Amino acid sequence: CNGDNFTNLADLGCVITKFRGGTQPPPPGETTKTVAMAEITFSSDTLGERFALDNLIFNPVLTFDEPEFFPPGPIDGKIVQGVTFFFTVEGIPSTDAAVGLSTGPEDTPLITPPIIEGDATGLLTLIFNPPVGSVSFNFALTALVDIPNGATISLFDESDNLLGTASADATVPLGFIFAEGTLGLSTSGLVKTIEKRDSVYPPQPMFSGSDTGWERQIEK
User: Fold this and answer.
1) If 102 and its partner were Cys, which of 98, 114, 117, 159 is the partner (CB 3.0–4.6 Å)?
2) What is the pLDDT of residue 188?
3) CA 2, 46, 185: angle at the middle one, nearest 5?
4) d(CA 166, CA 155)
5) Taking all residues of the chain, what is their mean pLDDT, rounded to a whole number?
C-alpha cells in the first residue's frame, strides 16, 4: 500500500490523516451493491480497553467538528448527514462512546480531536440513508504496543446480507505513544484521499480525558 488509496474488499492499511472519500463508478454494464449498514469493533486486548475514532468517510466525510455534534455528548442515537450511530456494550445501548468528552490520545498522525472516544468492548453500528459505496476511518487504542487486528469492519446491504469484512492492525507511530491505524472497505472502485482540511467551524470546547484510560496508560 503506497498511502494513496485502498481498493475493494482487501487492499487495507494505508497510513493517511484527514481525508475525504469518493468512489469511481463501476465499468459500464456492471452493477454494484451499496452499503446500508456497517458494524465496527475494536480489539479490547489493551490495558485501558478504550478506542478513539476519527475521520469517518462514507462520502461525505465526518471529522466530528461539525455543528451537529455540538454540544458534546454520547454518540448513540445521533443522526448526522445521513448516518445514524448506535453504540452497544454486550448488546445493551450505552452512552460510553461520545464526541467531545475526551481528547483520547490527543493529536497523533491519524487522530485530531474532536473524536468519538469510547469503550473498546462495545459495538459501533452505522446506518446509512441513503446507502453508500464505501466506509473508512482512522482509529487509536489504549495500547502502548502494536495490536494485530486492532479494528474490524463488516458491511451489509439493505437486505442485511454481509458484503464483506476486513480488519486492520494498530501500530505505534515513531515518536508517539498509542497504537493507531486506518481501516477502509469499499464495494466499488477506489477510495480517494486528500490532505487534512481545516475546520470551517470554531473549535468545540473539549474536556479532559484524564479518567478514560489514556492518561493512565502513560502513567504506567
Assistant:
1) 117
2) 54
3) 35
4) 9
5) 78
Distance, CA of 70 to CA of 203 (rounded, Å): 10
CB atoms within 10 A of CB 145: 12
- pLDDT tens digits for 163-193? 888 899 999 999 999 999 999 888 753 333 3
Q: pTM for this structure? A: 0.77
Residue 149 CA to residue 181 CA, distance in Å, equals 10
94, pLDDT greater than 90:
yes
Partner residues linked to 62 by β-bridges: 56
Cell of 145: 504496543
* Cell numbers describing residue 6: 485502498
Whole-number pLDDT of residue 106: 86
Which distant-in-sequence residues (6+ apart) come within 8 Å of 119 by Cβ? 49, 50, 51, 89, 94, 96, 97
φ and ψ of 217, to 5 deg: -70, -35
